[in-house]
Amino acid sequence: MTSRTLDSITGAKRVVIKCENFQRTGSFKFRGAWNSISHLASLERKKGIIAHSSGNFAQAVALVAQILQTKATIVMPNNATPSKIQATQGYGAEVVLCGNNPGDREKMAEELVQKYSYKLVHPFDDYHVIFGAGTTAYELVRAVNRIDLLLVPVGGGGLISGCSIAAKGINPRIKVIGVEPKNADDAFRSFQLGKRVPVENPNTIADGLRTSVGEKTFPIIKEFVDDIITVTEEQIIDAMKFYWERMKLVVEPSGAVPLAGILSGNIESPLIKNKRIGIIISGGNIDLSDFFSTLKKNIQFRKDHLDHITI
Amino acid sequence: MTSRTLDSITGAKRVVIKCENFQRTGSFKFRGAWNSISHLASLERKKGIIAHSSGNFAQAVALVAQILQTKATIVMPNNATPSKIQATQGYGAEVVLCGNNPGDREKMAEELVQKYSYKLVHPFDDYHVIFGAGTTAYELVRAVNRIDLLLVPVGGGGLISGCSIAAKGINPRIKVIGVEPKNADDAFRSFQLGKRVPVENPNTIADGLRTSVGEKTFPIIKEFVDDIITVTEEQIIDAMKFYWERMKLVVEPSGAVPLAGILSGNIESPLIKNKRIGIIISGGNIDLSDFFSTLKKNIQFRKDHLDHITI
Predict the structure, then answer these.
(1) CATH class of A29-120
(2) Which DSSP helix (H) or strand (E) runs through A136?
(3) Which of A281, B124, B178, B281 is a plausible cystine mate for B255, CB 3.0–4.6 Å?
(4) Which residues of B touch A247 (CB under 8 A)?
(5) What is the value of pTM for the model shown?
């Protein structure tokens, strides 16, 4: 998708947006889950699969398991958004709730693996997941004439490691820049130091990017990614607002992070001006129940003030 | 755009959505404004054009005038959403504010026409505007293999009259059903009575559909539209929620009305089951300033409760 306004604001020749919010289950996670689970030996699949996730990966694994007629168990923290739990169950997966302290999910998943011999599917630190996620950039770069710069969000690093392999594989001159919330900047710091440091107290609205970069993803990032920059919470919300109001796209906070990167001014101008830029929206899953129930209440109680439907 | 979930909920063979929220200026209004203004004699255009609108037509006329390098004056009610006034001015139009009582806009526009010899462009009761709007359905029907039923919102009737001509022109067996808010059901009542009755106190969130059906549009509707049904305010909001949450599309209330029609159960089942259905989203312009400033405030004041970003 493109936007004349965005081209004009940024000074780019053309900004092309890859909309993984339109992907099945509403995020790119479907790609990696599909690639990973469909590669399992049939015996492994028969025993059932297990994953832990508070959000998008849960739904992706649940749908893949449904399509492949495999039993799926998803460990989710007990503070996960109810709509995400329901969506995961809606695809036929069994949801097991755990605590929401660091390590709780992994521990619970490990217990269930021991007990039932389920096959654990990791949300990003798995080469099949990485290569699956990389098809996002492959499709984007193949679909447009040329890309000079590709912007990708960074959480665990599955999306950007796969995308950097795909983009550089097609054309090594494509620059790949990762964008990360300043409040969860472990990948930025790891990239600067050349070695992996864990995220500390990741207090960001971009809930999909709170994890630390992975053991398998980080070496790929070091090799193929040109730079990692960070953005503030305010910049993430401004980017979301641009997508929603100007482009009519519902994008979740994590998905808006790369646009925040280009709008922030933190990327040097020669990389942008008159260049062809690819931006990946990683997903669009966001619970709007409160927004719409407030809208309904406003209709009930303020029947004569309907001109402005903001809440 | 299509949605597996929508096909499954409705029982249709395939529902195809035409996304005029992605149109320039965010609504289908650009089509009619372009067709009307570009058909003016150059002498008429030189004197400048004038239009009255509280919303989408204002922006459409302003952009067309900018592209055609014509002076545009837009009369807007003084309670119009500030963002819509700004967007109209942003395209280089002069905005003249008037009162917000019925008739105020027309009176002010008429005064300015008298004074400056501007050419008035009507938002819907103009054959060029009608035919321009009809290209929406033309593109939709041409782009998909077959359409059995087409659902279109009804306000002044410009979109549905143009779309019914286009759809029936391509294939007279396509059924065209108009969907209107129950709280602004003048087209529904006019269609039943066979003669035009004006809208009374149109208290609907679908601000684009508060106008009465037009003198030129109504005879076309009588001839080419198969039925008009109505939907409640709650049904409109539920349809918006489906678009936003499930399809990741920002759709304004008026734009969600046809989907509300099919979800309401007010269309008889044989017209839907296993049929190919076209639905037009008329636009996606909605002011989300309050939503996003609340989100920013939440970040400031509730830094430790960011898991759920609903407000």
Answers:
(1) alpha beta
(2) helix A127-143
(3) B281
(4) 22
(5) 0.94
